[in-house]
Every structure is written in C-alpha cells, then in structure tokens.
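In the previous chapter we treated chains in isolation. Here, by contrast, the input contains two separate entities that must be folded as one system, with a combined length of 583 residues.
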Amino acid sequence: MADKSRRAFMGKVLAGTAGVATVASLYAMKRTWDPLPSVVSAGFTTVDLSPLEAGKLSVIKWRGKPIFLLKHTDDVSPDDSRDIVTQDGRYTVVIGLCTHLGCIPEWRESESIFHCACHGGQYDIHAKQTFGPPPRPLDIPPFAIKGSSIVLGEEGPEYKKMTTQA
Amino acid sequence: MAEFKKANSVGEWLDQRLNTTMLTKVMMTEYWIPKDINFLWAMGMILAFTFKILLVSGIFLLMYYKPDVNMAFDSVNYTIMQEVGYGWLFRHIHGVGASLVFLIIYIHMFTGIYYGSYKKGREMIWLSGMLLLVLFSAEAFSGYMLPWGQMSYWAAYVITNIFGGIPLIGDELVVWIRGNFYVADSTLTRFFMLHVLLVPLAILGGIAFHFYSLRIPHVNNQKGEEIDFEEEANKYKAGRKKLSKVIPFWPVFMAKDVFVLSVFLFFFFYLVFYHYNFAMDPVNFDPANGLKTPAHIYPEWYFLWSYEVLRGFFFDIGPLKAADIGLAAFGFAQIIFALMPWLDRSPTVAPASQRPYFRVWFWIMIVILIVLTIYGKLPPTGTNAWIGFYSSIAFILLFLLLPVVTSKEAAVTKGAK
C-alpha cells in the first residue's frame, strides 16, 4: 500500500513536471515564430502628397506592402468615409492588396477602377469593391496628416474618426 | 543471459543477434498478397520509389541551395543549373518527381475508391493514405517556395493568406506564420526548414504507418473477395501454389511490381530528359517581386481542382461573403475524401463496375475533377467563372449525395442477391 501511494505520488510529480515543461516548450516554440522586434518596429513612413498628379497612381512601399496614392481629379464625387483630405486636395490612400487573397490590383485610369487580375475583383476610385470576390474595400493604412504630408503607421485623429465611422 | 553459440556464417551471426530469419519471413517471404490483382496494385511501390528519388535528388540540391531572399533565386538558377556538375539533372528529377508523385498518388487513391479498398477493416489504410496526401501537399507547397521566383512568392502569399479567413485570430495568424507582415526572408527560411526536415520526417513516419495498417486487413483484390489468408498461405506453403489464392510479397509479388516500376521509370526519365518543362513554370524564372503580382496566378496541376473550388464562389450569397463561401468549400474539399469510408453506406466491397449506382457516381466524380482541373488553370472570367461555380457546386453535391446513392444501391443489390 505504501509502495502504491509512493508510485502514484511519483507519477503525479512526473505528469506535473512534464505538463509544465510541455507548455513552456510550446510557448518558446510559438515565440520563435513570432515576427522579430526589428520587423515589428520597422517603418513609420512619411510621404509628401503635394507632388502627385491627379488621376495618376503612385505606389510606395510601407512595411513590405504596396500603398496606392491617388489624387482625385475635380470631377470625382467626394466620399468622406474613404478620402484623405489635405490642404492640396482629396486622395485615395489604401493598401494595394486585394482584400480577397492579397494580389495587387492594377489602376485603370480610363475606366477609373482598380482591377485585380487574380480573381477578377474590381474597386471604384474610392477603392470600394464593385465586382467579384473581394469581401471589403481596400484597407486604409493607419495615417496621420501633417500639412501636405501623411505619416503611415501613425494613427492620427482623421484615421481614428474614419475607423470609428465604419 | 541468452546463450550465444559460435556462428558458422555471417548470416547465422546476424540471425542470433537480430533474428533476421524471422524478420525476413514476417516482412517478405510470408507476407501474403492476393493473386487476383492488376498493375494498379503496383502504385504503392512506385510511390515509395519516387519518394526515394525525391529524397536523394533533394539531398544533392540541398548542398548548394541557399535559403535567403537575396541568394535563393541565383543559387537555384545560376549555381545549381549552370555551375554544379549535373545540378540541372537533380533539379529536373526533383521537379518532375514532385509532379509525378501526385499523378501516382491520384491513381493510387482512385484505384482505392474504384475497388472499395477503404472499408470493412481497411479504414485505417485509407486514413493514413489521406494523411500522406496532406503531408505531400505541404511538402510540395513548401518546396515550391524555395526557388524564390514570382510564382513561388505569390503562391506563398495566396496560400498563407488563406489562414486569414479563420475567424478572430486570422490576421495575426497570417503574420505569425510568415514571421513578417508580408512574405519575407523569415517566411522563406521557416518553410525551408519544413521542406527539408520536419515534413519529410513526418512523411517517413506516415509511410511506415501506412504499410503497417495494411498488415491486418491485408491488400484488397480485383473482385473484393474476402480471403482466408491463413488457409491460403498454408496451401501455398504446402506446395499447392496453383490452388492458393495468395503469393508471398517477396520474391513473387515484387517480381511483378518491379516490372511495372521499370515501365514507370522509362516514362519518368523520358520526362526528365525531354519534357521537364511542364514542371518548370516560366513565370517562376522571374525573381520574386512583392510589388508586382503576375497577371495570372495558378498552382501546379495537382492543386488546380481544389484551387478552382476555392475561387468558384465569386459572388456573395445573402449575408455570406464570396471569399468565406469559397474558403468553406475549399475546407470541405480538403477533408471530404478522408470521410469516404463513412460516406459510402454500402457494405459491399466490389469494383465500381459491379456496383450499379456507385459506378455512375465514380465516373461523374472523375469527370468533375477533370473539369475543375482544366478550369482551375484558365482565367476566371465570363463563362469560365460560371463553369467553375457550377462544377464546384456539383463537386460538393456529389459527396453530400454519396450516402443516399450507396444506401439505395445496398437496398437494390440486396434484393437481387
């Protein structure tokens, strides 16, 4: 009997230790796959929007993602829930990755649409989806307006207002 | 301690220590295979051999490949292809082998479905086979990333993005899998590790388990006949070989297997030397560029059918988003084959040709898979998108109907017998 309870006790100790070790190992393994701190902290990009020509798409890179910068011509109807407004005009500033499966849509100036070649999705000039599989408009990156420039990665009051509206 | 006498030969010496005589009997000379089979029963051995070819060619590629975003493309397309002696050969063997291993997996799998080799005690063979299909798919996907061309990059992008569809944790999960906000160096190195170590290890374990799972229910035969293996084996051992319904794995069955394997290898090396291009997508000879999506993205041929199911649903239905329906359908397609033993409600083990309803079901399934494969490669516009949509629906309906079809068949054939 004494032997039995000793073995049971040893068994519990072993199971407990092994359990803790397993959880700790899994946590360490999970952390190994986490993005590195240098990757996470990389990138607050400042872009000056004033040199942009209306109707022509510019693409810059932010955190490895393409960012579409498009100045609206005067005949484009304004959309306050989507447009970024600086002292120089109204802009579409979005992450240029199709919200379906992440391909990069192309800007077709003549039709005023963004067209994704992968699965045929389409977006209007405000980058709202109009056809095909995209589940939502192209995402607007966090931004803060500084005069004629914007800082990507920083959440300014205009960005916060936009996200609370949606 | 066991008593060891002086051995008179190397064989005896080993037998004393490792029981090699018994091992040979159990694994080879007294492992019984039915006589009534055809060349389709050789696919398992062809797969084992092709895996070995992939392993060996992979080892040679591994000596020069560099898992780094700045060096990967050149290490494959310059170093291995142009500098390393016969490097091109190992690359083409590896690429063609990856493609053909799926061809044979599909033949192996549809042979199993056609002859009903997944039920009445053979469920674990089927499940372990499906597990191997998943592992080989993971191996193919991770390997496809390594040359770091445009297709490598964008395939990695699209496939890792699929995990973003998982509710709540999706977005964080994608970043975690990639180790970055986009497909980057961290993604390449971790998938390199998966491709050359973890997944091959799992495949080796899976193959061992798959072979073992055959042992108790034994190999099926062309008629689905239930054989008393012990009795038939006794007949064979007693010298009544013609009367016996079984043959030993070694050397009798293997003699036939090796012949089929030889025919396959002629075909394999013909492709390696003269038609390797089908396994080398031209788009992948452009270095990876995260800011430029190729005009048209498609996977290798063996993933086309499930890719088409994924993108077949291109419009929202009610409150359901197109992408979510596609993802759900894709998930369905990935697991549904594994459930075959339970979807088939008929207890009959017989070739499809002798099952009035299942026969029709089987060939419709093959046709739909071919249609999905063809349209998976075409751009999803206009009519193509609708054909993709309807064949995806048909694929799902087909499997939902299987229990009904097979129970009806069971009722009908029972009446006949």
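The first strand of chain B starts at residue 32 and ends at 34. Residues 382-416 of chain B form the longest helix (35 residues). Compare these points with the single-chain example from earlier in the chapter.
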